Amino acid sequence: MTRGGRVGLALGGGAARGFAHVGVIQVLQREGIRPDVVVGTSAGSLVAALYAHGMDGAALQQAALNMEEAMIADWTVPLFNRGLLRGEALARYVNQMVQGRLIEHAALPLGIVATDLVSGQGVVFRRGDTGTAVRASSAVPGVFSPVPINGRTYVDGGLVAPVPVQQAREMGAELVIAVDISSPPQALPQTDPVRVLLQTFTIMGQSINRHVLAQADVVVRPALDGVGSADFAARERSIAAGRAAMQAALPRLRERLQALRRPLPASR
């Protein structure tokens, strides 16, 4: 395949809706497209980490289908911690899946986005413990405990980059494929504090995304209506939605790749 500009894959946050990222990767793999860099926020950071460390579309789907909520969630008492979930189980799960390899040892250049809780600035982890970085990227304030790393404290990357398009460009991508799995705000019971917090993030993320996604070359939006952020039962539907959305976006991707003199291989 003739290579031109560097291609970046930016995987956005959306909790359990993140299974859709697997379907997107499966279509890219089928078409012979391997991104030069991959960057993820929150749920996207989990998929990005596993993919960058060498798991292909089939392996990612198998991992998704085998995953149980208990593997990535460890409840704690809010009175004694700053969040409802410590997130340590998520870090252990990621490190087990990548066999303990550091971010800088991934097969693909990998970026994991989190937010510095003190400065409010976004940070892209490109070195260090993979599981801890994914844990930090996924630490929704009030739901997960903030994560200390090297004397700083980090929370969910979705606060600054719901879909990390700019971060992919900063890592050298000339063409960015952005995968937006955010959900529209929904009517929720006002007495459920966790769902209210997630709703707040949804509203904020949509406002940021209107500006961020305009900077992407190809935007992929899986049809995930009715799939909630905590809906692990819909993982197969989410994967299929990711495949369908990426398939629909292929003409636009082909156009952009040709503009960079990196033609898309013939469809299989």
TrEMBL record:
Catalytic residues, chain numbering: 42 (nucleophile), 156 (proton acceptor)
Transmembrane regions: none
Motif GXSXG in this chain: 40-44
Motif (DGA/G): 156-158
Domain annotation PNPLA: ranges: 9-169
Keyword Hydrolase: yes
Pfam families hit by this protein: Patatin
Domain of life, source organism: Bacteria
Keyword Hydrolase attached: yes
Keywords, comma-separated and alphabetical: Hydrolase, Lipid degradation, Lipid metabolism
InterPro entries per UniProt: Acyl_Trfase/lysoPLipase, NTE, PNPLA_dom
Protein name: NTE family protein
Organism: Tepidimonas ignava
